[in-house]
Amino acid sequence: MLKLIGAVMIFGSCAALGLSARQNLRRRVAAADAMLLALSLIGSEISCRRTPLPEIIGELAENQNPTIRLVFSGLRRRLREQNGLSLSYLWRANLRDNRAEAGLGAVECDILCEAANYLGRYDAAEQVAGLEQVGRRLSAARAAADEELRGKGNLYRTCGIALGILVILVLI
Prior knowledge:
single chain; mainly alpha; elongated
């Protein structure tokens, strides 16, 4: 009976590792989609309504998308504390601190950090052009993550299950 319980626990943990790896890829694609939406909202607010960045960040902190809300509520909190730091620094620090919790990959985070080079520094047209460039690069990174999900997602799940079975057979 003890061997059976141990075998079930080993199999379950190995299968969970495989499923967790697949879920991380899914979260990465979903987070990239959310940040693409946020970039387009920022760009449209800057170009059409000429809304100041702190107000845009406040609106995004109230967004219904949990990833957008997480990233921008942290940025709003940092802007309130400010401590004499620039928006560019706060943007980068916030993204790097919330990267794992938001589900962003390192590549996506680095691309989004480049948006800090444009936000609040130039006129509206140049900010929007910079955000569009960042959006195109993020879109390409999202497509690569989606391709990885399609190619390796099922592999991770299957390998986790197969590893669990293999370990059980070796131990029994």
